Amino acid sequence: MNATQGPRSAGALLLCRAEPAAVRPPAGLLREQLLLAPAGPEWSVLVPEGKPWLDDGEPVDRVVTGWATALAVAAAGWPVLALWWDRDRAGFTLASGFRRTVGYVWLADGTPVGEDEAMRTFADRLALDPVLDVQALEPLTRPDRDADAHARLVGLAAVLARTGLALPEGLSPGESADRLRSAAHARGAELLDVPGRWDAVRAELLERAGWRDAVHTVRAELDAVEGGRLGPYLRGPRARLIGAVQLAAGVPLLVWGIARRSGGWTTAGVLLVADGALGIAYDRLRGA
């Protein structure tokens, strides 16, 4: 990545460890236009159609961290990795369910400014090999004159390739937002729909969804899992406690997101509030 490029060199990719069919519903709740494409047998990639970090004046890392958090909260089953970069820095943020996000940052020249513990936590949450993969990640946390921020992100993607990540041609970390969008559109125009081939699925444009869709999504998830292992957490004291915690966390997050005009954080707040409120209501209705 060239450190002399202007702010329009900023860009981002959202990597979801799930198939496109699973990513599509929660991604629609972000109220952003995103291009969705497969990125391996068990991975999907979301490419922003717009540039909210330019339009709203919010740093790209903050924007995509909000998106990743909202997606992880909505999915509650697979992690979301946001890769981001601008003229001064590059890095990643990993969101997984309601856990605290973990991230790492490099300066434009590749100088690491993150903590080694963050990289180890990253490997653990993605269930990477504790020996081989962690050893492969260690060079990313050390000074290297020949590796700029772009090279660091490419190196990170190379390690994740061991888990099946295969970014489509043209969707390379460090590229401009315009090039990423063009590459995603080209993939949708050129590939054929061949059953059983993850690499032959078309990229698709996800339209904005309304807040009512968020409520419907949460309600459907509650109904679907009541009979499973999470059933005890949907009824009784545990359900009420979890609902109260979600409300306590979601309300200030929603207010903060609205005040900052951050779509990702606002959506995360909405999902927490909706999940908490519906969880409490669900327990009362089923117990009646």
Number of helices: 10
- The shape is globular
The major sheet is characterized as:
7 strands, antiparallel
Taken in chain order, the helices and strands follow as: EHEEHHEEEHHHHEHHH
Strand order of the largest sheet: 6-5-4-1-3-2-7
Helicity level, as a percent range? 40-55%
The chain-level mean pLDDT equals: 76
- Span between N and C termini? 60 Å
Structural class by helix and strand composition: alpha+beta
Radius of gyration: 19 Å
Domain count, please report it. Answer: 2
Low-confidence stretches: 1-8, 189-201, 224-234
- Percent of residues in beta strands: 5-15%
In short:
The protein is of the alpha+beta class. It folds into two domains: 7-206, no CATH class; 211-287, no CATH class.
Task: Describe it.
This protein has helices at residues 20-27, 52-55, 60-75, 116-125, 132-137, 149-160, 177-190, 211-225, 237-260, 263-287, and strands at residues 11-16, 34-38, 44-48, 80-85, 89-95, 102-107, 204-206. The protein is of the alpha+beta class. The chain has 2 domains: 7-206, no CATH class; 211-287, no CATH class. The protein has a 7-stranded antiparallel beta sheet with strand order 6-5-4-1-3-2-7, sandwiched between helices. Helix 3 packs parallel to helix 10 (263-287) and helix 9 packs antiparallel against helix 10.
Walk me through the topology:
Blueprint: E1 11-16, H1 20-27, E2 34-38, E3 44-48, H2 52-55, H3 60-75, E4 80-85, E5 89-95, E6 102-107, H4 116-125, H5 132-137, H6 149-160, H7 177-190, E7 204-206, H8 211-225, H9 237-260, H10 263-287
Antiparallel strand pairs: 1-3, 1-4, 2-3, 2-7, 4-5, 5-6
Helix pairs in contact: 1-3, 3-10, 8-10, 9-10
